[in-house]
Amino acid sequence: MTNELILYAFLGGVLPTIFWLWFWLKADKLNPEPKRYIAYSFVFGILSALLVLPVEEFLSEIITGTGIILIVALSFSEELFKYLGAYFSALNKKYMDEPIDAVIYLITVALGFAALENSLFLLSAMKSNGAEISRIVLVGNMRFIGATLLHTLCSGVIGLFIAFSFYKKSFSKKVFLLIGFILSVTLHTFFNFFIINSESKIFIIFLAIWVAIIIMILLLEKIKHMRKRFV
What we know:
Elements: H1 3-25, H2 35-62, H3 68-91, H4 99-129, H5 133-164, H6 170-197, H7 202-224
């Protein structure tokens, strides 16, 4: 495989996520986050995708078959590493000063994670199909529509629960975080399970993700108007 094809795969994985990053950052345009922390979060998302690879390989070796237990374990590991990436890059910083910030940072990490994951999938497609452009475009579109939005949705759900507990006491924040994390892993598990077992219904699955994304956007509007006295 030539360096040129590797570059194409990298750009094909990164550029769509840059578009989505621009889209989500518009939600916080009135009080935007420092650009360096957005950059940190995106890079930490890429690092999270790298670090989770050996963990997923280990899980695949110790959990036999391709059943629901393995799918849950892989979904859990990805959501955990994305959350840790967001925590160490931004969530524990002083600039996390309003509810919507949690959603923005977690989505940014998710997009960095998806960027590397998409690039690796494109590389795999090129390796198995040569430089067949139609196949590369097909894989790229599927990742753009499906997996990228899934990572955005799942991390965004955790961000939403952190946001809604932003003005609550410490214990409540932990409970909200746990609920958000469980819901995130559940959504990720269902998506992967149905993709593996119901390829004929992939349009319905993607439609469900889009509906969930729209709901998340509506909730973001509610979060923008949250004030401490209302909690």
